[in-house]
């Protein structure tokens, strides 16, 4: 996947990014910044791209 290519994302992730982008635009962010924030947020929550399971693994040792 090349940088900027969104084909590996699920439809749900694409919808989430669009919703976040619209919210950021309402807050006055530029189109470019809103899109960057939206995809960074989707990646933070899901780890980016198509995934099996429910996102990143959480290990008890990381929660102290």
UniProtKB/TrEMBL annotation:
Residues 1-36 have a biased composition (Basic and acidic residues). It comes from the Bacteria. Residues 1-64 are annotated as: Disordered. This is Transcriptional regulator. It comes from Stenotrophomonas capsici. The lineage of its organism: Bacteria, Pseudomonadati, Pseudomonadota, Gammaproteobacteria, Lysobacterales.
């Amino acid at each position: 996947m090349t940088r900027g290519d969104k084909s590996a994302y699920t439809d749900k992730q694409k919808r989430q990014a669009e919703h976040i982008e619209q919210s950021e635009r309402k807050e006055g962010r530029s189109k470019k910044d809103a899109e960057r924030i939206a995809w960074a947020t989707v990646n933070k929550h899901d780890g980016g791209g198509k995934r099996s399971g429910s996102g990143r693994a959480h290990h008890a040792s990381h929660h102290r």
